[in-house]
Amino acid sequence: FFLSMNSSRKDCIQKANRKISHDVYTPKMDAVEFRKRGKEMIDYVANYLENIEEMKVFPLVEPGYLHKLIPSEPPEKPEEWDDIMDDVDQVIMPGITHWHHPHFHAYFPAANSYAAMCGDILSGGIGCIGFTWASSPACTELEVVMMDWLAKMLQLPNEFLSDSGNGGGVIYNTCSEATLVALLAARNKAIESHCKVNSETNQYWVMSRLVGYYSDQAHSSVERAGLLSMIKMRSVKSTERRMRGNVLEEMIKEDLENGFYPFYCVATLGTTGSCAFDNLEEIGPLCKNYNLWLHVDAAYAGSAFICPEYRHLLNGIEYAMSFVFNPHKWLLVNFDCSAVWFKDSKFVVETFTVDPVYLKHKNEGKCPDFRHWHIQLGRRFRSLKIWFVLRLYGVDGMRKYIRNHIKLAHLFESLILADHRFEIVEEVIMGLVCFRLKGSNKRNEELYSRIENDGRIHIVTSIFPDEDILYLRFAVCYQFATEEHVKYAYGAISEVTDLMFEDPQYQTSDAGLNYN
């Protein structure tokens, strides 16, 4: 039997070798070519960013434009680099929304810097997959140190530091992932706790009774996390766009009376719609008293807490079990890079640990294996770009960058307040200004449509649904933003408004509304 098997195996190998000899792999780009094309790409990116103002901030294309310009089948034979780069100019660039354009004022900033890009180049070159310490020790250990650096910059409680015994930080893709992971960890913690009290309780029955809470101003990812985890999430009606403790407590008591198990709450510092701040000093003690896992989402505003004058907005963070913010929004670190901390990481590790033999190593327990801290297994070397940015800018440089954005937001606010046609609808605290034309939502929809058609700047709208107030959002996003850029944006808005009110067709449709 073994002789026949070996003979058969030899035949297979000989046939495979004959076939392989006619199909030898030859890399299309070697180190010499990479050096040449890599330098060209650096020049291309630098030229793009230096001259970005010459482009339209928002692309003039229609859905489906790209399908008409790219073949429906992949190329069978290699193509030339120069042809690819020609297509970048002719096919890709016309469909790019330029997030780093001086006149991009939509959403929130997508942080970037040459330092971060250099870190990403090195990360890509090293190409490690850092799921365990053994898979790349430097990848794991630098991440631990960088998360401690960031925590100290924000003055987070010591319990969130890696040397606290139980706490620590980790880099995720986005805040949405952090919200889901925290919810899943809190869910398992709550199920285990209730099952210990009553050993006959079924864990799936307990899960059906769990309930979490979030503000009606919170990011949509909170609601999505509830859907994915099959947990009932209740929206807490905000007061002046902020979740208040008394309203939250009434809902908790109501659910307890109805036999539910409150276990999780998401507070937001810097809401997506208007950059409003929930009061952690109200919400935190309630979560502690009722044994709720408090997760704090500071996706955009969290970066500003490195400035002492804004740190008070984080007061009450000691009550949180988890905290997240996005360096890729406002800390000059490009996407993706979401910084997450857990006060007690064991709840996350216990939720996500699956231990196949092929992932074990002899140094387990001496350093985190981040594969146990989130959903995916593989992870990139993202801490490199944080390390590059923090060392090249220093904390002082980061503070100056953030303060400049906030100063420019207040400049835009002053220009809006000086124009009797407009009103500010939310206090300006960070780099976001929420404003509107006095009058109807229809009037503001018309203005927004005309601003977009004008094309000089790019902004977005939002709405306070309970108040039925539609407004426009102006975010300072450009890394090198100046007063001239802000004045240009206001000038464009003012001119479009003038033209709108001079338009006879518009006057007919919106007659009788004055500015005062």
State the CATH superfamily name of the largest domain: Type I PLP-dependent aspartate aminotransferase-like (Major domain)
Number of strands: 11
Beta-strand portion reads 5-15%
Q: What would you report as the Rg, rounded to the nearest angstrom?
A: 27 Å
SS element count, helices? 16
Number of domains: 3
**On the 0-100 scale, what is the average pLDDT?**
89
Reading the helices and strands in chain order gives HHHHHEHHEHEHEHEEHEHHEEHEEHH
Unreliable residue stretches: 511-516
Structural class: alpha/beta
- CATH hierarchy: architecture of the largest domain: 3-Layer(aba) Sandwich
CATH topology of the largest domain: Aspartate Aminotransferase, domain 2
What is the gist of this entry?
By secondary structure, this protein is of the alpha/beta class. Helix content is 45%, strand content 11%.
What can you see in these coordinates?
- The protein has 516 residues and is of the alpha/beta class.
- It folds into three domains: 91 residues, Up-down Bundle (dopa decarboxylase, N-terminal domain), CATH 1.20.1340.10; 252 residues, Aspartate Aminotransferase, domain 2 (3-Layer(aba) Sandwich); 116 residues, Alpha-Beta Complex (Aspartate Aminotransferase, domain 1), CATH 3.90.1150.
- The strands form two sheets. It has a seven-stranded mixed sheet with strand order 1-7-6-5-4-2-3, sandwiched between helices. Strands 8-9-11-10 form a four-stranded antiparallel sheet.
- The radius of gyration is 27 Å and the shape is globular.
- It comes from Girardia tigrina.
- Homodimer.
